[in-house]
Amino acid sequence: MKIKNPQKEKITMSDPWITSHERKVVNEMMRSGWDNYAYVEKFESVFAKWHGRKYALMTPNCTQAIHLILLSLGIKKGDEVLLPDCTWTGTSAPVTYTKATPVFCDIENDTWCLDASSVEKRITENTKAVIAVDLYGNMPKMEKLLAVCRKRKIPLIEDAAEALGSKYKGKRAGSFGIASVFSFHRTKTLTTGEGGMLILDNKKLYDRAKFLRDHGRDAKRSYFVLEAAPKYMPSNLQAALGLAQFDRVEELVKRKRYILHLYKKFLGDISDITLNMETKDVYNGAWAPSLIFGKTSGLTGKAAMEFLKKKGFPTRPFFYPLSSMPAYEKYKTGSAKLNPVAYSLSHRGITLPASFSLSESAIKRYSDAIKEILKFH
Ligand SMILES: Cc1ncc(COP(=O)(O)O)c(C=O)c1O
């Protein structure tokens, strides 16, 4: 990964890292991999094992993996599913596909992830699942969330779409709750172009999800369907790329962490900003370094992005609170008053470029621009 002219280096947000190894494996698949699901099954098997899970089901994307687990749990109209107000709509849209109600809870200042005390307050007799999100590679305080869910006998689903390689107290992201999901979107640490994975330990739930993933076919009778289920089958083409990327998983995560640490090196001495957490409990897979301006600076993410754009840099907002957007207006289950931390962090945050190819000098240039904003604001 050599950069010829650092000053001219184009800064991009989140390009993947594809090598000749991936091209070779995908080519092999294209030559001889059309007659079965061998690449899919192999990818599922190694991915589950790495996360200490028994079963895995690859899906065309992570949104569908979430829909699949919600369907498998029997979530339906009238049910409520609790989730953090700050996440991508990929977490919450599948709740609406089942006609259940998404209930937007607050997040924590330090983790940027679902706050167990907010969850506890919002549980009702209709609550049928909680989805915790490992935001930007950060991890929620899992034991607190699991304790709340256990007490109320509610399954916890871990949305680890953004947390490949993260760990909480030594346990991998993807090993918490009844099931976990991952995304292999083109912007993610490991990509299959589009792709997702559901990993879990419960055999009955796995069998149900597997049945629902492929149109509800009868296992005993060919081309005979028992339920009008969705079709969320992946392809060997996606899985071949996934497998080859997964051969390099440690290298991919290491590079993402290096990028986060470079931002910390250049910006870490500024007291009025916070970057992705790393504590004694959290090993951050650092999918997307993000930054929160402190309240004393008075800086908003919007103002910072306007400045960066003028300087010719790419920008990306911190996730907007889902409850603040038109898509979720009708649910009225979240607001600035109910979820003050989500609204405050989102208002003051931005997500930083994290393409694999970024050089140290490119990250320094971007960091210097952020320092400039702070100086002239
Ligand atoms: C937290 C989170 N959940 C779910 C998704 C949905 O993933 P996909 O784009 O693979 O459907 C994403 C993707 O960006 C995400 O960041």
Concise summary:
The protein is of the alpha/beta class. It folds into two domains: 20-247, Type I PLP-dependent aspartate aminotransferase-like (Major domain) (Aspartate Aminotransferase, domain 2, 3-Layer(aba) Sandwich); 249-376, Aspartate Aminotransferase, domain 1 (Alpha-Beta Complex).
Q: Which small compounds were modeled alongside the protein? A: pyridoxal-5'-phosphate
**CATH superfamily label of the largest domain:** Type I PLP-dependent aspartate aminotransferase-like (Major domain)
Q: Give the low-confidence spans.
A: none
- Quick one: how many beta strands? 14
**Compute the gyration radius: what is it?**
21 Å
The helix/strand class is alpha/beta
* Multimerization state: single chain
Helix content bin: 25-40%
Bulk shape: globular
Strand content: 5-15%
Key terms:
single chain; Aspartate Aminotransferase, domain 2; binds pyridoxal-5'-phosphate; four-stranded antiparallel beta sheet; seven-stranded mixed beta sheet; 12 helices; 377 residues; alpha/beta; 2 domains; Aspartate Aminotransferase, domain 1; 37% helix
